[in-house]
Design brief:
Number of helices: 10
Number of domains: 1
Helix content: over 70%
Strand content: under 5%
Radius of gyration: 20 Å
């Protein structure tokens, strides 16, 4: 009888842990889904950024269309929504994991929460599951896990963009380093796996940019573009 009570208690505890962890992951996706480039484009200029410039819902396109101040606001928001998502997960997941098995690792849920924040940015439910390319939110997630890795990736991005003026190339170079830096500087396999998942997602989202880079047709960072007022929303 006592053994049965203990087993039932463990099952209940594992179910509660799973629900709490699922809520953390879902919150990560919801935070990632908030699109500041779209919101500011509508509020400040009355346009849908998805129908302007490159069509990307991110800082680079917002900067080309709306100026440096909007670029900075969008970039910071996209970065810190990833950081905040992971931070919230670190507050609610510890002590609420399962007693054993796959769901006993809080690091797994931190990684999944961060990944889902990036997925939310790329496929926002608020924009009909369209969105940005995920680079800034990736930076925010990495910042939450390891500031040193964040500095390494940011440095590689700045060097690449500074010499080529291609933000897309900077994104690809930086994210290519991610699984290796996680592997060497972190002790958790879950974070290395996260790095590989992010790499695949970011390269997929940049597939059109890769084609344009190869063909010499990619837009350069800092080139101003005019807002088209006759585009229907």
């Amino acid at each position: 009888m006592i053994a049965k009570i203990i087993i039932n208690s463990n099952v209940l505890s594992n179910n509660v842990a799973l629900i709490i962890s699922f809520l953390a992951i879902s919150l990560g996706y919801l935070l990632g889904s908030i699109p500041p480039a779209y919101i500011l484009g509508k509020l400040l200029h009355g346009v849908d950024i998805r129908q302007q410039g490159s069509g990307n819902v991110g800082g680079a396109n917002a900067g080309r269309l709306f100026g440096k101040k909007v670029f900075i606001m969008v970039a910071l928001f996209d970065i810190f929504k990833g950081t905040i998502a992971v931070f919230i997960a670190t507050l609610i997941v510890p002590g609420n994991t399962a007693s054993s098995g796959l769901f006993s690792s809080p690091e797994l849920f931190y990684a999944l929460t961060g990944f889902m924040a990036i997925v939310g940015h790329c496929y926002s439910m608020l924009l009909g599951f369209s969105g940005g390319k995920g680079a800034a939110t990736t930076a925010g997630v990495v910042l939450a896990f390891d500031p040193i890795i964040f500095v390494i990736l940011l440095s590689s991005w700045l060097i690449t963009v500074g010499t080529t003026r291609f933000t897309s190339l900077g994104n690809l170079v930086a994210v290519s380093l991610l699984p290796f830096t996680f592997n060497f500087l972190q002790d958790y396999e879950e974070y290395t796996l996260l790095g590989w998942l992010i790499l695949v997602l970011i390269f997929w989202k940049h597939r059109e940019n890769i084609v344009r880079l190869i063909n010499g047709e990619e837009r350069k960072f800092g080139n101003k573009e005019k807002i088209q007022s006759n585009v229907d929303d």
